[in-house]
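Folds abound. A case:
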Amino acid sequence: MKNRVYINGSCAISAQPTFEGDFLDNINENVQDNVLPVIEPNYRDYIAPSAIRRMSRAVKMGIVASKRALGEACLELPEAIAVGTGMGCVQDSEKFLRAVLDNEEQYLTPTAFIQSTHNTVAGQIALELQCKGANFTFVDGSTSFESALSDAAMQIELGDIRNALVGGVDENTPYCLEIYELDNIIKPRHEAPFSITDARSKGVVFSEGASFFVLSDERNEHTYAALADVDFRNDVPDTDVFIGDFLSRNNLDIDDIDLMLSGRNGNSEDLAGFDTAEKLMLCTKLYYKHLSGDYFTASAFGFWVACNVLRSGRIPQLLKPVGTPPEEVRNMLIYNQFRGKGQSLILLQKV
C-alpha cells in the first residue's frame, strides 16, 4: 500500500508580497509592465552576510524560501531535496561566458562555472542545511517543478523516505530578458495593459521567483493538503484525453473536481490547450499568472496558491473565479502548459 503524501510547509517568493505567509493579502495586480520584478526578502535575516555576496539571486531565493518552508513544517532536516528549474543560475552563467570572451578563453577561474550549473541551488541549500540525503535537480522546461514534485512524491509513496524538500526556482537577467523579447516569449511593452484572458498576441508577462514545499508521509497541524497525483507530458495531441485518463486513474469523474486552477497566461500559442481544458471541466476556474507572471517554474507558485486555497477554505476574488464557487472543496486540479508544450496536471485533496 502506498503512503499518502502531505504538504506540511510552504513558502513563495514572487512578484507579490507572499513571503510573509499572508495568502494574497495586500496584492497589487500590475497590468502595465511586461516583466514583473520579484519582491525579495531581507536575505541577511537568513544567510550569513559573508556568504551572501557569493550567491546569485536564484540561490538566495532558494535558500530563504527553503528555510521558511521547513520552519513552518517544524522540520529541521529533510531526508531529500528535489529542485526544479528551467534556466538555473543564469546570472553566474552570463558571468562565466562573459569572462570566457573577455579573457580570450584564458586565465579563467572555475568559481563562476561551478556556480553557474543548474544544480547549484539544490547544492547550496544542502550545504546550508547540512543535508546529506538524496539531492536532485530537474531541468525540464515548464514541467521542471512537476518533475521534482513527482520524484519526491514517488519516494515517499514507496517508503524510501519519509519527507522531502521540493521547490521550483528561476531568476532573470537583463540580457536574458532582452533575448526573450526578441523571441516573442515576452509580450511587447506597447500592448499594455496586459490581461491573461486576452490572448491576441504571442508572448507572456514574464517574471521570476522561488516556491518551496515540505512533503511528508505524516499529517500534522500545519498540513495544507494531500498530494494525490502528478502527471506531465511534453507533447499532448488531445488535452481532453490527457485529463480524462488522469482522472480515471485516480477513480474520479469530471464532476468530482471542485476547483480548477488554470495557468492561462495570455499567450496566443497556448490558447487552444487552455480553452480545451477549461471547457472540459465543469467546476469553478481560478487563475494566478496575472499575479505571478509566467516563467518556467511558475506552476510552483500556482501550487502554493492551491495549497492555500485548500487550507484556508477561501477563494480570493483576485484569483478571478469563473463560475459559482463550491461550498466545499475536496478535489482541486492544477493545469499548466507553456507555448503549447509541457502540459501538466496536479491533483490536490483536502485533508
